[in-house]
Amino acid sequence: MDVTELADIEKHCKALLAALPLNVIRTEKAYQGAVRQLNMLLDAGGADENHPLALAVHQLGEAIEAYEGRRHPMPDLPPNEMLRSLMQAHGLSQKGLPEIGSQGVVSEILSGKRKLNTRQIAVLASRFNVPESVFF
């Protein structure tokens, strides 16, 4: 890499950081802006790991998650109660989670008769934009 390439990279990095809050998010206003930007990146195809925007989605998601962890910590609940809480917050019934299983499966999970498996945890974490660890 030569000096010209380095200067070009620096210019692009400055433009990227001016457009996206990839550093620490410190205010609610910045957080709301970051969430809007993340949604735009996702709508533009950034949810696909192979898309050129995927790295920006990942980095912005990490910054948002860090802010949420500091400002809006998740309650320490058993996995089934965490799921119930998230469902209520998003206005979902058992029918609203077909990717987890049938209503019977969801009912068993909510009642504590069945534990979430790793696939279900990954799906729920992605759907609710929370770390997988909230379901352990």
Summary keywords:
136 residues; mainly alpha; 434 Repressor (Amino-terminal Domain); 6 helices; 62% helix
Report on this model:
The protein has 136 residues and is mostly helical. The protein contains six helices and no strands. The protein is elongated. The mean pLDDT is 88.
Brief characterization of the structure:
By secondary structure, the chain is mainly α. It is built from six helices and no strands.
Topology:
Blueprint: H1 3-19, H2 28-46, H3 54-71, H4 79-89, H5 103-111, H6 118-128
Radius of gyration, whole Å: 19 Å
The shape is: elongated
Query: What's the main sheet like?
Result: none
Tell me what portion of residues adopts beta-strand conformation: under 5%
Low-confidence stretches: none
Alpha carbon gap, first and last residue: 45 Å
Summarize the helix and strand pattern as letters.
Answer: HHHHHH
Number of strands: 0
Mean pLDDT across all amino acids: 88
The percent range for helix content is 55-70%
**What is the number of domains?**
2
